[in-house]
Amino acid sequence: MIYTYAYPRPALTVDIIIKKKAGNSFYILLIERKNEPFKNQWALPGGFVDIDEEIEDTAYRELKEETSISDIKLSQFRTFGKIGRDPRGRTISVIYSGELINLKQKVKAGDDAKNLNWFPLNELPKLAFDHNEVIHYYIMHKKSS
Fold first, then answer.
1. CA-CA distance, 34 to 39, in Å (whole number)?
2. Residue 35 confidence (pLDDT) above 90
3. Between vectors from CA 64 to CA 51 and to CA 44, what angle results, nearest 5°?
4. pLDDT tier for residue 124 given thresholds of 50, 70 and 90
């Protein structure tokens, strides 16, 4: 049976915050976007949830496609859904986070990531979408816990 729904539905995405510790500093992994919107700008890795896919599975899939990272434990952090956060339409994003412990794991840009780089927490570039706000909430949460 096919159901119809009279109301518009938002798109669902995941974004992933990956941090690593080097010395006494923490770094966040960002991708440089290959495609519009925000082509050539830095962003968190992530993407759209497939219709037949669990949300957590999307986080692991997108992370592997865009960064090659697979040896990591992710935890759901928070949901962001402010109107206007994505120029393609109403988008709600479930944020996952994890810390890269296996520093020998190869990290390489792939899929719709043109490039990737580790940025110190206190030296982040201007990010696509609302990702500066997402990371700000993450940092504040980590400081308070």
1. 5
2. yes
3. 85
4. very high
Residue 133 region by backbone torsions, left for phi larger than 0, else alpha for psi between -120 and 50, else beta:
alpha
Domains within the chain, CATH numbers bracketed = 11-144 (3.90.79.10)
Nearest to 135 by CA among 13, 29, 47: 29
116 forms beta bridges with 31
Of 135, 120, 140, which Cα lies nearest the Cα of 45? 135
CA–CA gap between residue 92 and residue 86 (Å, rounded):
9
Residue 104 has what pLDDT?
84
Q: How many CB atoms lie within 10 A of CB 99?
A: 14
**Which is nearest to 96 in space by CA: 115, 130, 72?**
72
Nearest to 135 by CA among 71, 43, 24: 43
What the block records as the tokens of 61 is 């899939």
Q: Please give the Cα distance from 59 to 57 (Å, whole number).
A: 5
- Give just the sign of the alpha carbon dihedral 17, 65, 80, 94: negative
47/14 Cα distance (integer angstroms): 6
Given a cut of 90, is residue 15 above it in pLDDT?
Answer: yes
